[in-house]
Amino acid sequence: VQLQASGGGLVQAGGSLRLSCAVSGRTFRTYNMAWFRQAPGKEREFVSAITWISGRTYYTDSVKGRFTISRDDAKNMVYLQMNSLQPEDTAVYYCAADPNHDKEYDYWGQGTQVTVSS
Questions:
Q1: By CB atoms within 10 Å of each CB, which of 11, 33, 74, 85 scores lowest?
Q2: 82 pLDDT tier (thresholds 50, 70, 90)
Q3: What is the SS3 assignment for the chain?
Q4: pLDDT category of residue 57 using cuts at 50, 70 and 90
């Protein structure tokens, strides 16, 4: 399984970005998927997740109401729409796959840089 994240960039505070994650593998539709981020000097943190079948979504409190995770199983893609971006959202964003539904993310993408200027 390979994950390829893209869509990062430099944006002003209040702007928007849409991250994409392309996932190889015929059983993608059975994976729980998530986005994490890591800011300079900080530990990696959970941002958002989406389950298989039901598509139930989860968000860390700091992004609720601003970020939206979605998936397109026909295209093996996961997205993170990020609105009202703030400087504190600056980080490398990683997509990850949990194929066994045990909250263990066994597969990771390479990360995409998001920089929000004030």
A1: 74
A2: very high
A3: CCEEEECCEEEECCCCEEEEEEECCCCHHHCEEEEEEECCCCCCEEEEEECCCCCCEEECHHHCCCEEEEEECCCCEEEEEECCCCHHHCEEEEEEEECCCCCCCCEECCCEEEEEEC
A4: very high
CA distance 55 to 60: 17
Per-residue pLDDT tens digits for 9-44: 999 999 999 999 999 987 888 899 999 999 999 999
The token pair at 12 is 């002003």
Taking all residues of the chain, what is their mean pLDDT, rounded to a whole number?
A: 96
Radius of gyration of the chain (CA): 13
Cα separation, 53 vs 71, whole angstroms: 11
Mark residue 41 as left, alpha or beta (left: phi above 0; alpha: psi -120 to 50; beta: remaining). left
Q: Amino acid letter at 99?
A: P
